[in-house]
Amino acid sequence: MSEPGDADAEVRALIAGHGDFAAGLLSAVGQITGRGGAFIALSNRDMSAADVERAMREQVEAGAVEVIFTDLPAGSCTMAARRLQRERPNMVLVTGTNLATLLDFVFHTDVPAGEAARHAADKGRAALVVTGGSTGGH
Amino acid sequence: MAIELFRIDDRLIHGQVVVGWGQPLDLTFIVLVDDEVASSEWEQELYRMGVPPEMDVHFHTVDEAAEKLNGYQRDERRGALLTGDIETMARLIDLTGAIPRVNLGGIHHRIGRTQRLRYVFLAPDEEQALRSLAARGVDVSAQDVPAARPLALNEVLSGEGNR
How far is residue B93 from each of residues A132, B75, B138, measured CA to CA in Å? Predict the structure, then answer.
């Protein structure tokens, strides 16, 4: 799932979610920054909750994953991440992830992962903007 | 309104339930029936954090759920009842006899199970349990999300649903 120029990035975080959510975001980060290699992508497609937790645990234990980014608060990836977090209180979970969140995160390699994740989450919230259309009900 | 969805799903509360079914059915409460979760504050907090604040979640053992089911069925709001496995749903049906239909929403791979659908894998004793429910008049079908066509139990067990 790497884009050109991703090879030298150091893995720091896991993106996990429904369908191709993670692979798509990883691809977009790679295309924009060349730093898609900072992430590992995981899909929960057709997996039980136990399968998701097992796959996530393998990725976390295999590398230097300090942060897990997920899509939905109610999603099975978020549930699995919270279970892992119980064993690893220093691990950081960000849910509701969007592209702006990840783009900010990959450029903050000089601060602790938790701090970078919180800063990135603020950026992600701020990136949600609505323009056009009528206001005042529907 | 009462309980609109009786679902067997080993992920219990997750995106398909809260959003996929929750939005179109306008679900405002979930009854999660699981003896283990009902005995763990931590597990309950985990699942509670996954749902929007306007949605209530009630955690019960099978015995508690059997006692309270009538009350939930009289609730003016719409709700869903979830179990993580077939055995739990079958026990609840045994105790209440008041569950008209069961949705197979996610029973995933495990050793000893055979794939019947992309999201339904069944062991022989589980297949027999589902046949028993159907023989008692419970409408058993598989449907992961509302937009999918519901598949009757015969289609699931015959493998027709995979074609």
Answer: 52, 19, 9
Q: Classify residue A22: in a domain, yes or no.
A: yes
Is residue A134 domain-resident? no
Please tell me the predicted confidence (pLDDT) of residue B104.
98
Does residue A100 belong to any structural domain of this protein?
yes
CATH number of the domain enclosing A73: 3.40.50.510
CB contact under 8 Å between B15 and A18, yes or no, is yes
> What is the rounded CA–CA span in Å between residue A2 and residue A70?
19
> B50 to chain A nearest CA, in Å?
4
What ipTM goes with this model? Answer: 0.81
Reported as a single tens digit per residue, the pLDDT across B9-25 is 999 999 999 999 999 99
B14 assigned to active site: yes
Chain segment A30-51, per-residue pLDDT in tens = 999 999 999 999 999 999 999 9
Question: Domains, chain B, ranges and CATH?
Answer: 29-100+127-138 (3.40.35.10)
pTM of the model: 0.88
- Tell me if B159 sits within 8 A of B114, measured CB to CB: no
Contact A48 B109 (CB under 8 A): yes
The 10 Å CB-count burial string (b at 16+, else e) for A7-32 is eebeebbbbbbbeebbbebbbebbee
pLDDT tens, residue by residue, B58-103: 999 999 999 999 999 999 999 999 999 999 999 999 999 989 999 9
Nearest to B14 among A50, A79, A82 (CB): A79
What CA–CA distance (Å, rounded) separates B31 from A120?
35
The closest CB to that of A46, out of B17, B51, B118, belongs to B118
Whether the per-residue pLDDT at A65 is higher than 80: the answer is: yes
Residue range A3-21: mean pLDDT, rounded: 80
Q: State which residues form the domain around A54.
A: 13-126
For chain A, the domain total comes to 1
| Residue to test with chain A: of B8, B14, B17, B45, most A Cβ within 10 A | B14
